[in-house]
Write a structure and sequence with these properties.
The complex is a heterodimer of chains A (390) and B (139).
Chain A: H1 2-12, H2 14-21, H3 28-38, H4 42-54, H5 59-67, E1 74-80, H6 86-99, E2 104-111, E3 119-121, E4 136-143, H7 149-164, E5 168-174, H8 178-184, E6 189-194, H9 199-205, E7 215-218, H10 226-240, H11 264-267, H12 277-282, E8 287-290, H13 299-316, H14 318-349, H15 352-361, H16 367-384
Parallel strand pairs in A: 1-5, 1-6, 2-4, 2-5, 6-7, 7-8
Chain B: E1 11-16, H1 24-35, E2 39-42, H2 49-59, E3 63-68, H3 73-86, E4 94-99, H4 103-112, E5 116-118, H5 124-134
Parallel strand pairs in B: 1-2, 1-3, 3-4, 4-5
Helix pairs in contact in B: 2-3, 3-4
Classes of the chains: A alpha/beta (390), B alpha/beta (139).
């Protein structure tokens, strides 16, 4: 471990290491590791994910190269409140995918202790249906306090599993807080799990996590109140379709996810498609499904809904749009982090944040002036660039 | 990477292998490791050696702590080690065994590649210190 401490120090004092950290060249030893990964070595895949998670210097070169080999996997996010049964459901989904011959990757994100950085990652216990099956690659990740980096790290890990050749990659995360929402948004298809008899939860869901759901699942549907929760969700999903939805002659049946485009197909010949109706015609109506993960009830239907959504994404052109949106977000996150690192470096050069704060306290400067002092040179560099310069 | 990024996060797998159903000790260890700042993956009860190998490889752990109270360590531990070797994961995994192990067996386990055997009553501090001092280096 000592041998790596140097790297760690460099990584933490972002300033010093910034220029190295950004390097996207593939290091020789990493090239070997990548070759092993692409050849099917589980150990190499696991090690690459560790490097991604740890932001080990050189990891960017690895991820850059992985991009060339990724893009074929169906990426499915599963989120929901603690206790909703995510892990058990993911386990059963993985087994069902395996049964039809798909290989599966799972990234399970667990919150870590904010005090010690430690964590007990317990989702693996629930992977009972797939123990011993190496074609289900299950990886626990902790939500370490990275600067908006959790979603990037997760997306990169998914890219690794995708490049390794997994047909389906599932991301499992607690649906609480913005960072978790960001994580699950890196998926193509998002399933939101809801517990029965959680009327309050449905209310809370409306606050944000609702917008991200492509499929809503009432798990533990053998419990009291499941019917009501299903009805509430269906009502909510319909309301979400918006005012233009009514113009759409037929109504997509909720719970019939197999033909999301059914009534839209007739409209495609019409010229009126460039009107705002367009959105309604092409929109996906989220499916609302009931499952009992413990017994496996509803799992096949759920996979059917995922498949239908995947097909909808491909046929409507939404897939490239979804992915473009995701890439845009990734670029933004990376650029922000990198520019932030440059700014930290500039702060260090001026004696560090403590010294600057002390200057404000002694009335020698003010925060705005200091910020301008630090950022102006960066802005000047940008202005000096001719358009098209890189 | 921890928030401060000064130290690499140590990843551990706490594994219950074999038929005994006592995992209080494993829980205590898992929590102590977490409080020490480690990331701990817990396997759950009644795992077969190949399950442990799968978890250790996929989770890319630095430390594998095997808790065995059934007395079957002489058959189970070698299988785990063989499996790790098969996936090229033996060399840089620190293998610990916890449980009641006779002295003769301790010697044998160590020859196989187990780094240390911790018997009942071992202070948690000692175990954590041992992990900190012996975590395998990575390039």
């Amino acid at each position: 471990m000592n041998g790596r401490d140097a790297n760690w120090g460099a990584n933490s004092t972002r300033g010093r290491a910034a220029s190295h950290d950004r390097a996207v060249e593939l290091r020789d030893r990493d090239a070997e590791l990548l070759e092993e990964l692409l050849a099917g070595s589980h150990r190499a895949l696991a090690r690459v994910i560790t490097k991604i998670e740890e932001r080990t210097p050189g990891y960017r070169g690895i991820v850059s190269t992985l991009y060339d080999h990724a893009g074929d996997a169906a990426v499915i996010g599963v989120t929901g409140a603690p206790g909703a049964g995510k892990s058990t459901l993911v386990d059963k989904l993985a087994a069902a995918y395996r049964e039809r011959g798909d290989t599966v990757g799972v990234v399970a994100v667990d919150p870590s202790s904010p005090y010690t950085g430690g964590a007990v990652l317990g989702d693996r216990i629930r992977m009972a249906s797939n123990v011993g099956d190496m074609d289900v690659f299950f990886r626990s990740m902790s939500a370490r306090g990275q600067l908006g980096g959790l979603s990037t790290a997760t997306a990169d890990a998914v890219t690794a599993l995708d490049a390794f050749g997994k047909d389906v990659v599932m991301i499992e995360t607690v649906g609480a807080g913005q960072s978790e929402v960001d994580v699950v948004r890196t998926a193509d298809t998002v399933a939101v799990l809801v517990q029965p008899e959680s009327g309050d939860d449905v209310q809370t869901l409306k606050a944000g996590i609702l917008e991200i759901g492509d499929v809503f699942v009432v798990n533990k549907a053998d419990m009291d109140g499941a019917e009501r929760t299903l009805a509430e969700l269906e009502e909510m999903v319909h309301r979400r379709e918006g005012p233009t939805a009514g113009l759409d002659a037929g109504h997509h049946g909720v719970g019939v996810p197999n033909d999301p485009n059914d009534d839209g197909s007739e409209g495609e010949e019409d010229d009126e498609r460039d009107a705002s109706v367009d959105d309604a015609v092409d929109a996906w109506t989220p499916a609302v499904l009931a499952t009992v993960a413990e017994t496996g009830d509803g799992i096949d239907e759920l996979i059917g809904a995922f498949d239908a959504h995947g097909e909808f994404l491909r046929e409507s052109g939404e897939l490239s749009e979804t992915r473009r949106r995701r890439y845009a977000e990734e670029i933004r996150t990376l650029v922000r982090a990198d520019v932030g690192a440059l700014a930290s470096e500039a702060i260090e050069r001026r004696g560090g944040i403590e010294a600057l704060a002390a200057r404000v306290e002694h009335k020698e400067a003010d925060p705005y002036g200091l910020a301008a002092e630090i950022v102006d040179p960066i802005a000047a560099c940008l202005e000096d660039l001719e358009p098209g310069d890189t | 990477m921890s928030v401060e990024g000064t130290e690499r996060t140590v990843r551990c797998l706490v594994a219950k292998v074999g038929l005994d159903g006592h995992d209080r000790g494993a829980h205590v260890i898992a929590r102590a490791f977490r409080d020490a700042g480690f990331e701990v993956v817990y396997s759950g009860l009644h795992r077969a050696p190949e399950d442990i190998v799968q978890a250790a490889v996929q989770e890319d752990v630095d430390v594998l702590g095997i808790s065995i109270l059934s007395g079957a360590h002489n058959t189970l531990v070698p299988k785990v080690i063989e499996g790790l070797e098969e996936y090229g994961a033996f060399e840089d995994t620190l293998i610990l065994v916890g449980g009641i192990v006779p002295d003769d067996d301790v010697k044998e386990l160590k020859e196989l590649g187990v780094a240390e055997v911790f018997g009942p009553g071992t202070p948690m501090k000692e175990t954590i210190e041992f992990v900190r001092n012996n975590v395998p280096e990575r390039e």
